[in-house]
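Could you help me review a protein record that somebody else here produced? This is what I was given.
***
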Amino acid sequence: MKSYSIPLIVMLFVISSCKKDDTNITFSLPAKTQSGQNTFGFLLNKSTWTNYGQVCFPFAGGCRENLRGTYYTSDGDIHISADRVLYKNNSWDTKESLDLYLTTNFKGTRTYSTLTNDKIGIAYFSSEKGQPDKTYLLPLINPAFNIVITKIDTLAKIMSGEFSGKLFRRISDMTFATSVTDSLIFTDGRFDMKLP
């Protein structure tokens, strides 16, 4: 019995001393690169946002990567997902994710814009402990969002670009209608990804 008590005490000490807390973390925008650095970031209402942490599924036994991108060569569609999960007192405090979709007839490296009727879909989700979840979308009337594809190299599997625009809070889960006043401004967005 004596031989088991020392490892048990050490294990309990290690577990109790490894409390995860991201309260004092500082984020900075990654450089604008085109070499597959797997970086992603933007300014959200002038505050820096980058992918960080992982969304985990305790009962499914795994976590997903916090940055995922796909370029569908068959139709030119692009999809990018980024997550940010912050912990406080050893449990998640906020979960955020951004999904960008470009589902237009792909015309290579150039600027795609809702203002020129390119098909862009953007969704930003935010969940904070003790608060209602929030979803922000492009408004149904006069959406304003740009995605600039600066590089797609299917041989090296690299996709890079920039983005900016404005999203509005979804009023309810029953509709895609958005608020006219509750909005988020995305500026100086950039990504440089390795494709699967």
